[in-house]
Design brief:
The chain is built from twelve helices and six strands. The protein is mostly helical. The strands form three sheets. Strands 1-2 form a two-stranded antiparallel sheet. It is a multi-pass membrane protein. It comes from Tuber borchii.
């Protein structure tokens, strides 16, 4: 008897929606193409050969402003079978892992952020691009696809299982999960000018920034991961999740300088809140414990899959990690000298956006 594939509900819904919306969009584009060719049969280079858009399912800067739901649906629309297979694989494996690790509610929030925010920003960028260049191709570009979600999932994996090693081509290539985001961004940035995939390049970077910002500063984690009870931790203050650590060592310094300037601006506008000493201690403890985690449960079967009883063991392990982090957080808060305030270093040399080095200032007159 073949093993039953167990897909969490939200992931299953995204898979069905992706297939349905992609097929529907393809059918509508084909119908539009046939209709225009019948209308302009003698104009092979005229209007009948234009790019066909579906502005009520995908984001088209010149048309989609009256279809606000497209900022969500566009993330589930692929325009060819190759990218559709990649997105379905991303949702199936990545969504299954993240939904089980976070729960359907938190995973849903994450999906909403990494789907809507990149599409909205890309929409605005292409409008500005058209205004500066008067290039109609930018105004009627089709913004859609799961590239932003793919980039976001890699950021989430770096947070959860940074030291897990993925072996490819029968051991010829080994790469740690923490290096995937930079490699993905590099390949998409390279393909933009070479293959003309500027939309994918834009969405890859926007998916990276939006997911990192949400996970770094806003995502709520419960101290006891087996329940939804307080106390809770907001964001991830660990040093290894700072922006500079997503890039190769030679780029740490310039990325740190730029990110520190941006971070100070966000703090000054009260968009981000500096991390406390307790947050930093808890974040580092959780990150250290996550270093031994793996992607075994990602596959859900076969070699290296979880064995019977491992779900309970995983829950106990996560509970122990959370309790250790909470204990260190409370210990740090209890030992903090009266009248002092520990915040993330807002300046200095080598600052990183959301860096976890401490700067304790004594209160004075």
């Amino acid at each position: 008897m073949p093993p039953r594939v167990n897909i969490p509900p939200l992931t299953r819904g995204c898979l069905v929606a992706c297939v349905f919306l992609s097929v529907l969009t393809g059918a509508l584009r084909y119908r539009d193409q046939v209709a225009r060719q019948e209308e302009y049969p003698d104009s092979p280079t005229g209007r009948g050969s234009q790019i066909y858009t579906v502005p009520y399912l995908t984001v088209v800067p010149a048309l989609s402003i009256v279809f606000p739901w497209t900022f969500l649906t566009a993330a589930l629309v692929e325009q060819n079978i190759f990218t559709l297979v990649i997105t379905l694989a991303t949702l199936f494996y990545g969504g299954k892992y993240l939904e089980r690790a976070w729960g359907s509610r938190e995973f849903g929030k994450f999906l909403l952020v990494v789907a809507v925010v990149p599409n909205v920003i890309a929409f605005l960028l292409y409008i500005v691009w058209f205004a500066l260049t008067r290039n109609l191709e930018r105004s009627f570009a089709t913004i859609c696809g799961g590239v932003a979600a793919q980039s976001a999932f890699l950021v989430a994996f770096k947070q959860l299982v940074p030291e897990h090693t993925v072996t490819l081509f029968k051991g010829l290539l080994k790469i740690r999960v923490k290096h995937f985001p930079a490699a993905f961004l590099f390949l998409n940035t390279l393909s933009g000018p070479i293959l003309g995939t500027d939309v994918s390049t834009t969405l890859a970077w926007l998916g990276f920034f939006s997911s990192w910002t949400y996970l770094r500063f806003y995502k709520i984690s419960h101290a006891d991961l087996s329940t939804n009870q307080s106390p809770t931790l907001k964001g991830d203050a660990s040093e290894t999740f700072a922006m500079a650590y997503f890039f190769p060592d030679p780029l740490h310094r310039p990325v740190a300088i730029i990110s520190e300037v941006v971070y100070n601006l966000l703090v000054s506008f009260r968009i981000c809140t500096p991390f406390s000493a307790a947050d930093i201690s808890a974040g580092n403890s959780r990150a250290e414990a996550r270093g031994d985690a793996s992607l075994g449960m990602l596959l859900g079967g076969g070699r290296g899959a979880a064995q019977p009883g491992s779900a309970r063991a995983e829950a106990e392990r996560r509970r122990a990690i959370a309790l250790k982090a909470l204990d260190q957080r409370l210990h740090a808060a209890a030992n903090k000298p009266p009248g002092s305030q520990a915040v993330v270093n807002g300046g200095g040399n080598g600052g990183v956006l959301g860096e976890t080095s401490l700067d304790t200032e004594q209160a004075g007159p």
